[in-house]
Specification:
The chain has 291 residues and is of the alpha/beta class. 40% of the residues lie in helices and 13% in strands. The protein has 12 helices and 11 strands. A 7-stranded mixed β-sheet has the order 3-2-1-4-10-5-11. It has a two-stranded antiparallel ribbon with strand order 6-9. Strands 7-8 form a two-stranded antiparallel ribbon.
């Protein structure tokens, strides 16, 4: 992409109105940053950021990573987990460029969405740094990582996140997932259910509890990492806190939603089946006592 065509493209984008134009403009800058950027995308002192990708998204995940790298705070490590040997051996050019600037690309067993955090825990002998999870199909604002880390420093004994739902109980236990509304509260509660993809920061103590449980998630919620992350937080005594009352706006990378896992989990009822298989009577009782 030479300068002439870059300016032409920017000129066309500026004619767009509203959110569409804003997203296209951001995408253009991120592509330019990926092509011409030389600066390191990591820096000592920050939290670790871990994510995964699969299939066609491997060709656009570099945009999500660039949006994190351009933030007001850089992570101490930024790790992308892949489960395909062939993909690791023939990386898309966008990922190869990021590798030169500090992105770690690691091969993992196929743990599904749990790849975004579990292989990282599995790889460590000693867990000390807070861990931030991200998704491969979102663009993150510049304040994203810095705000999460600041909230962790102020509230180190909870799971701080950008988006959470309010779990609902009924006479059978937990009501259907589709009835869990988004929260508008910043109070830490066991009833809050974090969405890890929008951004959540996990304290070292909870990470150790997750590691100790190993791959037990494969038996109950193999396609729903958020369920496992919540139930382990509940059992370990970590409440969930949305860091601001206003809903965090998700900015999706165009073309990434056709095969999104949440469509099947929500519309197909997979979330409810996995919730029923994961939460024990003692978990429900703890939620009831916390009301």
């Amino acid at each position: 992409m030479n300068l002439f065509f870059t300016l032409q493209r920017l000129s066309r984008i500026l004619r767009y109105k509203g959110r569409v134009g804003e997203i296209h403009l951001r995408l253009t800058w991120l592509r330019l940053a990926n092509r011409y950027g030389k600066a390191r995308i990591t820096s000592p002192g920050g939290p670790v950021v871990s994510l995964t990708t699969y299939g066609d998204r491997a060709h656009s995940v570099h945009l999500a990573i660039e949006s994190i790298a351009r933030g007001q705070m850089r992570p101490s490590r930024l790790i992308l987990w892949l489960d395909e040997v062939s993909l690791c051996e023939d990386l898309p050019i966008g990922l190869r460029r990021l590798q030169k600037r500090g992105l770690e690309i690691r091969l993992s067993k196929n743990y599904g969405p749990h790849k975004k955090y579990y292989p990282y825990l599995e790889s460590l002998h000693k867990i000390e740094a807070p861990l931030v999870t991200a998704d491969d199909d979102l663009l993150y604002p510049r304040y994203w990582l810095k705000r999460l880390f600041e909230e962790f420093q102020q509230y180190p004994d909870v799971v701080n996140c950008y988006r959470a739902r309010v779990m609902v109980l009924n006479h059978n236990g937990l009501a259907k997932y589709e009835g869990w509304e988004m929260t508008d509260s910043t109070s830490p509660r066991f009833f809050h259910f974090a969405g890890s993809g929008a951004g959540a920061i996990y304290p070292p103590g909870l990470q150790r509890a997750l590691k100790q449980q190993g791959v037990a998630f494969l038996d109950c919620c193999p396609k729903a990492d958020d369920i496992w992350l919540h139930v382990q937080a509940l059992r370990a005594g970590y409440k969930i806190r949305q860091i601001r009352a206003k809903q965090f706006r998700l900015v999706e990378i165009p073309g990434t939603q056709d095969k999104a896992l949440h469509h099947r989990n929500l519309a197909g009822g997979e979330n409810d089946r996995q919730i029923a298989a994961t939460y024990r009577t003692s978990d429900i009782d703890r939620l009831k006592r916390s009301e």
